[in-house]
Amino acid sequence: MTVPRVWSCLFVWTAAATLTTSRATSTILYTKVNGSETLTCKCPDHKCQEVFWYRYLETNNSFEFLLYFNSAGSEKHENNANKHRLRGFLSSGEMIYTLRITGLQTDEAGLYSCMFKTKHMIPDGYYIRPGVNPPTLHPPTVKPEKPNRSCRSCKPFAPKGCMSSVLWPGIGALLLLAGILAGTLFYFSRLPKKCRHPFAKTNQLR
Q1: β-pair partners for 112
Q2: pLDDT score, position 48
Q3: How far apart are the C-alpha atoms of 7 and 134, rounded to whole Å?
Q4: Cβ pair 100, 77 in contact under 8 A
Q5: Residue pair 129/154 in contact by the 8 Å Cβ criterion
Q6: Where this protein primarily resides, as one coarse class (predicted)?
Q7: DSSP for 36-69?
Q8: 3-state SS class at 123
Q9: What is the pLDDT of residues 98-114, one digit of tens each?
Q10: Strand, coil or helix: what is 97?
Q11: Distance CA 153, CA 155 (A)
Q12: How far is CA 77 from CA 8, 55, 66, in A?
């Protein structure tokens, strides 16, 4: 058994032990059928020289080793039939390993992740669901604003500002009526007094 194959068995056993936690914290990707995804795996201290990529398929509840890749650019596939669909990369300047997957099918839904040889750690990974539509998010509910109370609906114990806005127009109306009444009385007081009719004196002489 070759070294990569031995390490692939070790990381599969480790992945099986951490499967529940990885599925709960993994990133969910809703991919179209025959679509592609790019997965990344970052080394925590920039000293990772080798990485193993694997997946756990939901259809048959099985682990599969996908790809072995090292910092020198060498890669080895478990299944040569998928060699044209799986490609490994390493970003320049950073220890970020990338796996490019193309032609995803519905029966390939499951958890995809990696494991560094020297770190014996498994990142959260990606939960890929080909052919599944993402859930529709409901728009956020907006609470209706409370309408401002107008002074027309003032109660007996209304606020001071509301009472003043009602009181001042009332005082103005009373002053206007008082002015009109005073003007009317003044007008009639200035009218000349009526004289008695002349025939009234004639009747008195008789």
Answers
A1: 55, 126
A2: 86
A3: 35
A4: no
A5: no
A6: membrane
A7: -EEEEEE-SSS---EEEEEEEETTTTEEEEEEEE
A8: coil
A9: 999 999 999 999 999 99
A10: strand
A11: 6
A12: 11, 13, 6
